Amino acid sequence: MKKNLKKAIRISSIDETGGRALIDAPGVVNGTGVSLFLNGEAWGNGQIVGGEAHIVGRCPLPATYSLTMEVHTVNTKLLPE
Fold first, then answer.
1. By C-alpha distance, which of 60, 5, 55 is closest to 34?
2. 6-65 pLDDT per residue, tens
3. Residue 22 in contact with residue 50, Cβ under 8 Å?
4. Which helix (H) or strand (E) holds 52?
5. Predicted model pTM
6. Which region, left, alpha or beta, applies to residue 31 given φ > 0 means left and ψ of -120 to 50 means alpha?
């Protein structure tokens, strides 16, 4: 199940100057939570609504960075297979 979830949710675009990220999650249940971590530190979070999430981070992104994503499922039985 987790393997399929990783394929279903991805970071689709980043606004480095504005510190925003768009998460693409077609077919994922509304209300599924997404958290982003910048270089290991909490940066921003949001929820999937209508197959996407708009996340505004705490700050603009530096010249070099690493973003990781953590997904908080609502009900794993409702996720795409």
1. 55
2. 667 899 999 998 999 999 999 888 888 999 999 999 999 999 999 999 999 999 999 899
3. no
4. strand 52-56
5. 0.80
6. left
